[in-house]
Amino acid sequence: MRIWTIVLLGAACAVHGADSGSSTEAFGWLKKMANASRQQNYSGTIVYQYGNQVETSRVVHFVNSAGGEFETSKRSTVHRAKSCAATSR
Fold this sequence. Notes:
single chain; 2 domains; 3-stranded antiparallel beta sheet; 2 helices
């Protein structure tokens, strides 16, 4: 999950460097999201499909009362068979 923090902060820097008046507000929201990802419990499944493969990643993140972070992830890859149209006569 550290990679998401880096991505969010990188995006925040890009937004912060923009000349728009709302860039400060956008930077604040991205900062809140990055902090929440380290302070909240969450779980989810990410599904990614490419070609004839489907990958799933199950992520569980837990923060205890002492501030310790625990995260597990399990990745699975499924190879799908190409579909064949059945012909009948």
